[in-house]
Design goal:
Blueprint: H1 7-15, H2 26-42, H3 51-60, E1 64-68, E2 73-76, H4 86-90
Antiparallel strand pairs: 1-2
Helix pairs in contact: 2-3
C-alpha cells in the first residue's frame, strides 16, 4: 500500500479504486454506522460515531481497495465488527 502523505495522494489512490472526490453513499454509511453502534451496545461497550468518521464513510463506505494483488489482500471500508471481541479489545481507546 502506498504511503499517502497529503490529501491529493489519498484522492489519487482512491480514484484508482472507484472512489472520487464528492462521492456520497450517505445512506449506506448511516446503515454501517448504525450496525456498528448496535453491536457495540450489545457487547457492553457502547460507542457513538464521530463526525470525522461519518464524513469519511459518507465518501468511502463500500469501497474495496486491493493493496496486494498477488495475495488478494484488500482494505474494505466498512465499519462492521469482524471479530467477536472488537469492542472490548478497543474500549480503552474510547475513554
Amino acid at each position: 500500500m502506498p504511503r499517502l502523505e497529503v490529501p491529493a495522494d489519498a484522492d489519487a489512490w482512491f480514484g484508482e479504486h472507484d472512489g472520487f472526490s464528492g462521492r456520497s453513499v450517505a445512506e449506506r454509511a448511516s446503515a454501517f454506522a448504525a450496525e456498528a453502534v448496535e453491536e457495540s451496545r450489545k457487547s457492553g461497550f457502547p460507542l457513538e460515531p464521530v463526525a470525522v468518521a461519518t464524513a469519511f464513510l459518507t465518501e468511502h463506505a463500500g469501497l474495496r481497495v486491493r493493496h496486494d494483488v498477488r495475495r488478494d489482500d484488500c482494505v474494505d471500508f466498512t465499519p462492521v465488527p469482524v471479530w467477536g471481541d472488537l469492542f472490548e479489545d478497543t474500549a480503552d481507546f474510547y475513554v
